[in-house]
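call fold(seq) -> tokens
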Amino acid sequence: GAKLWFDHAGKTSGHAFVVKALDDERDPKKTVALTRQLVDQDKVVALFGYRSTPSLEAVAPVLDEVQVPLVAPFNGSDAVRKAGANWMFFLRGTYQDEMNRLVEHARTIGIRKIAVLHQRDAFGMEQAKAFDATLAAAGMKPTGTYSYDRKTLDTTEAVKGLVDSSPEAVLMACTPKACADIIRKVRETNQKMMFLVL
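ret:
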């Protein structure tokens, strides 16, 4: 989608846009190394579309050092915004904004029994705490909190916890593959819970 827009902008403006994609494998050290490569060797004028909370936290001071903007990071973390992200320009709202809306929606339709599910990493732990705070502000507390290892993506225990506790809804902070796996496995047990995903 981004490439289509850059191609369109290039045709209408007369400027050529080159989009170069590199895979950091969600490793913050690789994110920093590849960012330096793009700036030092490729002489980019802007960076675009980075994701992953740990990677963005790691690259924030580098951006300040090299003074190259990172536009539209796909992230809503407050921690990233507070990491000195002076050269990051966000288009997405914060995860907290999303959480407030998810909890408000659940309350509006009468759901009170809500569990929290998160991956065990910087992103997941931050969001688990924020989910708890958001529920508390709404006069609620989670019926249970479940997690899985971000590195192995083994969701077995998390799924068992959800099935055993049978909440009406689950607030989820997880990668797309793990979220899909959890939802599929819970659905296979004929549980009728709603999944509210950041």
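Helices lie at 2-13, 28-40, 53-66, 78-82, 95-108, 122-137, 156-165, 176-187.
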